[in-house]
Specification:
472 residues; mainly alpha; 3-stranded antiparallel beta sheet; two-stranded parallel sheet; 62% helix; 4% strand; globular
Length: 472
Amino acid sequence: MQNKNFPFLVITLSFLVFLVLPMLIQDGMFMDGLLYACVSKNLANGIGSFWFPHFSKTMHPFFDQQPPLGFGIQALLFKLLGSSIYVERAYSFLTALLNAALIGILWRMLFKNENEIKKMGWLPVLFWVTIPVCFWAYSNNVLENTMSIFDLLSIIFIVRFFQARSLLLILLSGTFIFLASLTKGIQGMFPLVSIFAGWMAYRNFSFRKMFLYTVILASVPLGIYFLLLQNDLIFQSLSTYLHNRVLNSIQNAAEAENRFYLIYRLLMELLPMIVLTVIIVLLNQKNNKDVPFISFKRNVLFFFLIGISASFPLIATLEQRGFYLVTSFPYFAIAMAAVSAPYLSALIEKINLQAGFFKIFRIVSVFLLAGSLIFSFMQIGKASRDKDTIHDIHLIGKEVPGGIVVGGTEDLWRQWSFQEYLIRHYYICLDSKITNTNDYVILESGSTAPDSVKIEKVNIPTRKYHLYKVIK
């Protein structure tokens, strides 16, 4: 059975490479991921500190929009590998591989006594990576990619606790919950409900024990935060984040028309996986009558409840974006895979290892992986987005010294990606006004400087954004 699963594993890896790497390896990135790369690179270069990370002299000199752990980890990679654009890309792809590996580990733990099913760890990974916003997120360096690693580790220790009942496992789980929350905030703390979900699904310990275990689990991250907040600098950092980001997003920020947008988005993202699961069950139930419907329904319920806990609470804020759901997808993928696995396992078991078709299938799977890698690396030097902006940024960066503030219009200042490319590549800080104190000014085509400021165009072949020197 293990050999029979090999081509399916290789094809799953091919999907992961093909869906994530080609876009990731090109220049250009979604503004949130680019922003996080800027902050991490600055931290690696000694600009800002762990508890007070820095984006720009003119915007977020203290970047208080997210907790600092994700930047601290990515900054380590910048310190090791330098400032190439492939540093954040390598980091983001590494998080995809780690998430996939942890999903596989969790699957093997769940089905350790089901030898045939245990070997199908590729199935939940395949379901997971083919969710559209999931592979998009891992192509764009968002913080959910890192947070998901810590949350998966937390759930792994809880599942192990269900099997071994050692309180040390709860303490380890709680530690990873803390790390998840220090990466992306409160939403990383959803594993706090995991013991309750386990009690609901498995019913192999009492309500009283469930409550006690949950209190112990919650006491770990809360206790760590209590100790950290005794430090005035840490208190200032985290309280500023809580006020400026968390409370503001609940009360004011709006990315969707209503709080239930993410629930609708979740259903749309999961719909292909759900439809595929239903088809697998219906097509194979007649041929495999000895396979009970949803054989592992307790595991299905447990992971479905974990997925809900990681997604539904997000309706508390109107700042709703599809990639916020990324942390919940591994659990929905495992739940759906647990429904499909008994039927697929019965089909795979019938495969003849010596059949010519299967031998060809194995060869094709290897060629698919090789083709995915070759296609991905053929994208080096290309731009997936913002091609003209990136072109102009590099021309401007050759003329303007790094670290200075250049003048600009308020409209240009609000073009976040433009600011981020300036910071990411050259640490050039853009202001929202133009004064005689500036040495340089950047104007978008069609914009002008105030009459009080005399400027002279720098003769470089930019396409959209133009550089001027201030005449003093």
